[in-house]
Amino acid sequence: MFILYRSQVSAQSVFLFLIRSCSSNMADLWQNAMDHAVAAARRAGQVVREALQDDRKVMTKSSSVDLVTQTDQKVEQLIIQSVREKFPKHRFIGEESVAAGEPCVLTDGPTWIIDPIDGTTNFVHAFPFVAVSIGFSVNKQMEFGVVYSCLEDKMYTAKRGKGAFCNGEPLQVSNQEDIKQSIIATEFGSSRDPEAVDKIFSSLRNILCIPVHGVRGAGTAAINMCLVASGCVEAYYEIGIHVWDVAAGSLIVSEAGGVLMDVEGGEVDLMSRRVVAANSRTIGERIVKQIDSFSPPRDDASSLHKH
Amino acid sequence: MADLWQNAMDHAVAAARRAGQVVREALQDDRKVMTKSSSVDLVTQTDQKVEQLIIQSVREKFPKHRFIGEESVAAGEPCVLTDGPTWIIDPIDGTTNFVHAFPFVAVSIGFSVNKQMEFGVVYSCLEDKMYTAKRGKGAFCNGEPLQVSNQEDIKQSIIATEFGSSRDPEAVDKIFSSLRNILCIPVHGVRGAGTAAINMCLVASGCVEAYYEIGIHVWDVAAGSLIVSEAGGVLMDVEGGEVDLMSRRVVAANSRTIGERIVKQIDSFSPPRDDASSL
Question: In which pathway does it act (chain B) (predicted)?
Answer without folding.
Answer: Polyol metabolism; myo-inositol biosynthesis; myo-inositol from D-glucose 6-phosphate: step 2/2
